[in-house]
Design a protein that fits this description.
By secondary structure, this protein is of the alpha+beta class. It has three domains: 1-91, Potassium Channel Kv1.1, Chain A (2-Layer Sandwich), CATH 3.30.710; 164-277, Alpha Horseshoe (Serine Threonine Protein Phosphatase 5, Tetratricopeptide repeat), CATH 1.25.40; 301-478, no CATH class. It is built from 18 helices and 15 strands. The strands form three sheets. Strands 5, 6, 7, 9, 10, 12, 13, 14 and 15 form a nine-stranded antiparallel β-sheet that branches. Strands 2-1-4-3 form a four-stranded mixed β-sheet. Residues 295-477 form the TLDc domain. This is BTB domain-containing protein.
């Protein structure tokens, strides 16, 4: 049996840091009027940081009066104090520090190769300082992609852009965007940007990035063949990411035809046939993006829901699904009222419907999909019982955490033995809005009930009830 005494160890090392009289390193940090000297022990610094292991090696150090002298002007005293506390004690309290200092700690941890610090700092910023990130998005975005261990915050920034792309794509920062980041954004099937706007922004970015164009030569009427060839070279790998099928006939004429010279011939021929002759796509150009106007889920989650609709339930998360669906918002509780009557009035359709529910005091997002919709139905042959249910084979319900990925997702499809009981006829009984199975997932005005139904159709939640904060329903159409 091994006994652990980490608490005492951390306390003792804290005393070594604060009251040391046998230090052998003096580190001067900061610049101008914001500087401070810290005293430390080279053996501890080298043991805890690969950076200091190299920087304090014999061949690199500078000594004065037998003391190692070290300078870090690019790290502020407050941030370096946090670094030393982590190195000596393994403890940090982010709550005590300003947003800028916590972000500075992330930058310092990347430079000082303190990989263990990186993820907790990113998680804290995303979960607790989201407003500050949004207010300083341009500044943060350009710095975070220069850091080697900031994938979590990088993904957060990219997903934020995909969800609300217009401000960033039309900002001055966009024109200097790294090409790899731009590629990532344009290839996302859930980028919530009108395709004609994506095309206009791409052209502007390409002109800015192409030598001989930009501010020096921004008037397209004065371009020669070499100018178009140069722009084509710049945009060569981006052109196939544009969903040209999303352009209207007028947009095709006004936006695409003038740049015919920069589009590969085989792609342009397909675009032309589609818009002029109505010819079906040959998989050269991509289908429209999956866009959803939801206040409940992030756009990236729609890719996973599309997978479920297509019965693709592997381990791939947020893939770039080749199938394209249109999600038309037909009911929103915060807009139309959260009640059974409102739901029935808006969702009385014999068409595929996706619904999403956000509940009060719960991090979970509940949802479901029915390819047959919700409608008043009576089976005249067996009206004594089956008029209460709608038959369906491809319905499913699910939940996942708010602002999270599908690693915490649970999906359940209708049991094949109970297809007849999949959807309770919510227009047959005024006490319910939507109702999957036998009260397995049921809306009763502003209350959501989740339980194991009598027919054990879904059985994923256990029994519970929630107060609905908002509910959305979308008519689903495959394009």
């Amino acid at each position: 049996m091994t006994s652990l005494f980490h608490s005492g160890l951390s306390k003792d090392f804290s005393l070594i840091l604060n009251d040391a009289d046998d230090y052998n390193v003096i580190i001067q940090v900061g610049e101008n009027n914001d500087t401070k000297e810290f005293r430390a022990h080279s053996v501890i610094l080298r043991a805890r940081s690969q950076y200091f292991k190299s920087a304090l090696s014999t061949e690199w150090i500078t000594k004065k009066n037998n003391m190692i002298m070290f300078s870090k002007p690019n790290i502020t005293p407050i941030v370096f104090d946090m670094v030393l506390k982590y190195i000596y004690t393994g403890e940090l309290n982010f709550e005590d520090h300003l947003n800028e200092d916590i972000f500075g700690l992330l930058i310092a941890s990347d430079e000082l190769l303190l990989e263990e610090l990186s993820e907790p700092v990113q998680d804290y910023l995303i979960k607790n300082r989201t407003t500050w990130i949004q207010e300083n998005f341009g500044f943060i975005f350009h710095i975070v992609f220069k850091l080697s261990n900031s994938e979590v915050l990088q993904d957060f920034c990219l997903e934020s852009i995909c969800a609300h792309p217009q401000p960033f794509f039309t900002s001055e920062d966009f024109l200097s965007l790294d090409k790899d980041i731009l590629y990532y954004l344009l290839e996302r099937n859930y980028l919530q940007l009108d395709e004609v706007d994506a095309w206009d922004c791409l052209i502007k970015w390409g002109i800015e990035q192409t030598p001989g164009l930009g501010n020096l030569n921004n008037d397209r009427t004065k371009w020669n063949n070499e100018d178009y060839k140069s722009l084509k070279k710049t945009l060569d790998k981006f052109i196939p990411l544009i969903r040209f099928v999303d352009f209207s006939p007028t947009e095709y004429i006004d936006k695409i035809q003038p740049f015919k010279a920069i589009i590969p011939n085989h792609i342009y021929e397909e675009i032309e046939e589609f818009h002029i002759k109505g010819t079906l796509l040959k998989k050269i150009t991509l289908p429209p993006r999956n866009r959803i106007e939801s206040n409940i889920i992030k756009p990236k989650l729609i890719s996973k829901i599309v997978d479920w609709i297509e019965r693709k339930e592997g381990n791939t998360i947020f893939n770039n699904n080749d199938s394209s669906y249109k999600f038309d918002l037909i009911y929103q509780g915060s807009r139309d009222g959260i009640s059974n009557e409102s739901f029935r009035n808006k969702c009385n359709l014999q068409e595929p419907i996706l619904f999403l529910i956000k509940c009060q005091n719960s991090p979970r997002i509940f949802g479901g999909y029915t390819p047959v919709g919700f409608y008043h139905y009576i089976d005249r042959r067996e009206a004594y019982f089956y008029d209460q249910y709608i038959f369906s084979t491809n319905s499913f319900i699910f939940y996942f955490k708010e602002d999270d990925n599908t690693q915490d997702m649970i999906l359940k499809r209708v049991n094949e033995n109970f297809h007849r009981y999949t959807i309770y006829n919510n227009f047959y009984n005024e006490f319910y809005g939507l109702n999957f199975g036998d009260l397995d997932l049921c809306m009763g005005d502003n209350i959501l009930s989740v339980a194991t139904g009598d027919y054990n159709i879904y059985n994923i939640y256990g029994s519970d009830t929630y107060t609905i904060e908002d509910i959305e329903a979308f008519k689903v159409t495959k394009r």
